[in-house]
Design a protein that fits this description.
15 helices, alpha+beta, 7-stranded mixed sheet, 3 domains, Immunoglobulin-like, 4-stranded mixed sheet, Glutaredoxin
Length: 470
């Protein structure tokens, strides 16, 4: 073997050694009785288990050791039940360190040897916890002057430490996930705050591979996303949510891992939401703009097939879509043209499509409330709305008997004779389901409203119509 070959092999081994370093992380939480502890990473609201350490000979120390390439980032020490998150810690400046502390590794008790980054992080957290205890005590005593003084001291402390520790991964993550503030000169604080919410997160200093990894596998990103979409945007319109989602995706750019993280965080929370008006439109928008355009290479063909099938069904019943006309037989169940009733031919301006089951307890309660409201309006010149009630029941005789017994005087239809599949047309997957159509028979509501809110909703829609917003 030539000298040149030997030097080449040495160089290769050196490179491999730099990637797969020897590591030794020892944790000594005083008095813990766990037989094993786990090393894990955060990913959204889950933990990904990475390594295991058994209890040492001193009965309260646990050492993770070996040869492995660890990415820079936030990791978590987990109890033997696989759920208890004992403490977060950093892998950044060192792969060989020791931490001692009390049973729960409370910040004030932790002592770190071999990692300055972790030492600074735990010292910072301990100081904040101490300040919170002081704050609670001063609030209880009603000492506002001391509270103001403590606030000023802590503001100066945080500013100084963050500046001094600007290179520490923990403090870089704090800066990236800081929700920011709004200048006093801004005319619309809420909009400004929302539009600049992600500015620090996409700071160039965290756009390296290590920075992306650290953000993805930390609890901060999950919390930041959760507050943005389900705090700031909880009551926003579907159009606003879609615009802000597209803005966030634009900032993410071609970072596929980050795109996957965000979309898979959002997707299940907007799909078939039964509480928030318009959220189904957000889900459809996400499918159209990202999954159907081939921007989600992680999605399997089978997943895309199901997603596209659900999309084609849900999009028909979105607010603003034209409601498909139903023709069904009434309670006579006579299969003749004069006994087929239309959902669209009522003279009233609004139609409430009411899909219900006589054996469903909630359907019985809501139908009784709806009957009280409906009957009370019959003497008025303007009945406001018609009810087209579809018996969502296979037992036709049971449905007919219930209608007669409770004297439902609206349009009652049911049975298997129907011109189209109303479950597909209106995304009916449970009972009761309420769909409200306007004078053009367009869908203006596709969620279950409390019956007491039905007239106020129609009043609000009427004002919008009169002001030219429809």
């Amino acid at each position: 073997m030539t000298k040149r070959h030997i030097l080449l092999i040495v160089a290769v081994l050196a490179c491999l050694g730099a990637r797969a370093q020897r590591y030794s992380f020892t944790f000594a939480p005083e008095g813990r009785g766990d037989s094993v502890l786990y090393l894990a990473r955060h990913y959204r609201d889950r933990l990904i288990m990475l390594d295991t350490a058994r209890q040492g000979t001193r009965r309260h120390d646990y050492t993770f050791a070996g040869s492995r390439a660890w990415d820079e980032g936030v990791y978590v020490l987990v109890g033997q039940d696989g759920k208890e998150q004992i403490a977060d810690f950093l892998l950044g400046d060192s792969r060989r360190f020791t931490m001692t502390g009390d049973k729960s590794m409370g910040a004030a008790s932790v002592k770190v040897n071999g990692s300055e980054a972790n030492r600074q992080m735990f010292a910072y957290m301990a100081r904040l916890q101490q300040a919170r205890r002081q704050q609670d005590s001063l609030k209880g005593a009603g000492d506002s002057r001391a509270l103001d003084s403590l606030g000023a001291v802590m503001t100066a402390y945080e500013s100084r430490v963050r500046k001094e520790q600007a290179g520490n991964l923990f403090f870089r993550l704090l800066e990236a996930c800081d929700n920011g503030s709004v200048p006093d000169s801004v005319a619309d604080p809420a909009t400004h705050y929302r539009h600049h919410y992600w500015d620090a997160f996409f700071d160039p200093s965290l756009r390296s591979r290590a920075g992306r990894e650290a953000l993805l596998y930390s609890p901060h990103l999950y919390n930041k996303l959760n507050y943005f979409f389900f705090g700031l945007l909880y009551y926003a319109s579907a159009d606003t949510i879609c615009r802000d989602l597209d803005d966030l995706m634009g900032r993410i750019g071609d970072d596929t891992a980050m795109r996957r993280y965000v979309l898979q965080f959002i997707e299940p929370r907007y799909y078939r939401s039964t509480k928030n008006i318009g959220w189904d439109a957000v889900w459809c928008h996400m499918v159209e703009q990202y999954y159907q355009k081939g921007l989600c290479p992680w999605a399997k063909e089978s997943e895309l097939y199901v997603m596209n099938k659900n999309h084609s069904r849900i999009i028909q019943s979105l607010i603003g879509a034209h409601g498909q006309e139903l023709w069904m037989i009434d309670t006579t169940q006579i299969d003749a043209p004069e006994h087929w009733r239309s959902s669209h031919r009522s003279p009233e301006r609004y139609v409430v499509l009411w899909f219900w089951d006589p054996d469903c307890h909630h359907c019985q309660e809501h139908s009784a409330e709806l009957k009280l409201l409906y009957d009370s309006l019959q003497a008025a010149p303007d009945h406001r709305f018609e009810v087209y009630a579809v018996g969502y029941c296979h037992d036709v005789e049971r449905w007919r008997s219930y209608v007669r017994e409770h004297d439902f005087r609206w349009i009652n239809v049911g049975g298997s004779n129907v011109n189209i599949d109303y479950q597909e047309a209106y995304n009916v997957h449970s009972a009761p389901t309420m769909i409200i159509l306007d004078e053009h028979r367009d869908i203006i509501m596709n969620k279950m409203l409390p019956i007491r809110d039905l007239l106020p909703f129609l009043d609000k829609h009427e004002k919008k119509r009169q002001n030219g917003h429809h």
